[in-house]
Amino acid sequence: MRVAKPVELTADDDRRLRILSKRKRVEARVQMRARIVLMAADGMSDKDIAQKLDTDRRVAARWRARFLAAGVDGLLKDATRPGRPRTAREAANVEEVVRVTLEETPEGATHWSTRTLGAHLGTNATAVARIWRAHGLKPHRVESFKLSNDPHFIEKLEDIVGLYLDPPEHALVLCCDEKTQIQALDRTQPGLPLKRGRGKTMTHDYKRNGVTTLFAAMNMLTGQVLSMTDQLHRHQEWLQFLKTIDRKTPKKKELHLIVDNYATHKHPEVLAWLAKHPRFHMHFTPTSSSWLNMVERFFRDITDKRIRRGVFTSVPELEAAINEYIAAHNVKPKPFIWTAKANDILAKVTRARAALNKNTSK
User: Cα–Cα distances in Å, from 161 out to 217, 227, 285?
Assistant: First the structure.
């Protein structure tokens, strides 16, 4: 009579297995494997484990052996299966799916789905999905981009990246911009709260209660943010924000401001004020290159974490929420670290321009 090999657990193995067997977010099959090993460690036979867990004796034996061979980590993934070699016909089908996906579009539509391409080629949607996954093809997704046509792109790029990678001594580098047209949106009905098995709900429609603009200057070194909100975003408001920066920063520090090419940043009144305040040094990003300004990352975070899912009955309520978020952010600020070198960015832009020119010349 065959006797199953005994299972002995270390304290760490026992702890990990009990977590895997009980945690709800663990896959059901992994939970069962952990329970099999725990029962085996208690001295139960494979037959008794199978009866207890309503499975086959061979399943219990397999995972007992897998644990003895590979430990707890061996329970987390299935063994690789070589399968039969792909036939020439199947290989040709893969090539055809890839070719049609890349070179053709369906009649009356902009891109293929697994079902439309499967019907077009006489195969099934599951096979198309598997081929797309293997080749990294995602026809349903479009990524936005735009190459800058600024004639001084290289000089501006090197200037700003130089500030990020080698900031000047005894100076502050501030990434500045406005986030305009932030809407105070109220929902037409109350939503339902988050609960187990159901996400938080919000109505798809809303009521507009006005807009505001967030002016922000992020300290590149510390991640702290100076801010101001106003319902307008003319050169007068921008000038007021510059004066706020002047008041709230150490007087002996030189200030290097990274800004975009918005007209208000170059208004004659703004330029006249800057001429009287020589510690302000303006560094303009190339056109169509907002990604060079790190404050855009902060704008993304505040949009995602506070604005998009917020409910605001008035502009003052929206502005109070924005100021509350920034105050909390400044308690434990975390800077965004720039790592890309100017030469690497230029090489990538050069490749993108060459690919764009190649496609447009066809």
Answer: 17, 24, 10
- Longest alpha-carbon distance in the chain: 97
* 82: DSSP letter: -
Task: In whole angstroms, give the CA distance from residue 336 to residue 27.
Answer: 35
What does the alpha-carbon distance between residue 27 and residue 76 come to, in Å, rounded to a whole number? 9
Q: Which amino acid is at 100?
A: V
In three-state secondary structure terms, 173 is strand
Q: Tell me how many helices (H) and strands (E) the chain has.
A: 13, 5
CA–CA separation, 20 and 76 (whole Å) = 9
Q: Are 244 and 222 in contact (CB under 8 A)?
A: no
CATH 2.120.10.30 assigned to domain 153-191+202-344? The reply is no
Question: Are the C-beta atoms of 100 and 131 separated by less than 8 Å?
Answer: no
Nearest alpha-carbon partner for 187 in 204, 165, 164: 204
Give tens-digit pLDDT for 101-159.
999 999 999 999 999 999 999 999 999 999 999 999 999 998 887 888 899 999 999 99
Domain chopping of the chain, boundaries: 11-75, 92-135, 153-191+202-344
Residue type, 185: L
- Rounded CA-CA distance 220/162 in Å is 13
Q: How many CB atoms lie within 10 A of CB 198?
A: 9
290 burial via Cβ count (<10 Å: 0-12, 13-18, 19+): middle
Torsion of CA 139, 143, 144, 150, to 10 degrees: -110
Beta strands in the chain (DSSP E): 171-187, 206-219, 225-230, 254-259, 280-284
Q: For the residues of 325-350, what is the DSSP string, one character each?
A: HHHHHHHS--PPPP---HHHHHHHHH
End-to-end CA distance of the chain: 74
pLDDT digits (tens, 9 = 90+) for 255-293: 999 999 999 999 999 999 999 999 999 999 999 999 999
Q: Please say whether the beta carbons of 112 and 105 come within 8 A.
A: yes
Q: What are phi and psi of 94, to 5 degrees?
A: -60, -45
For 257, the 3-state DSSP assignment is: strand
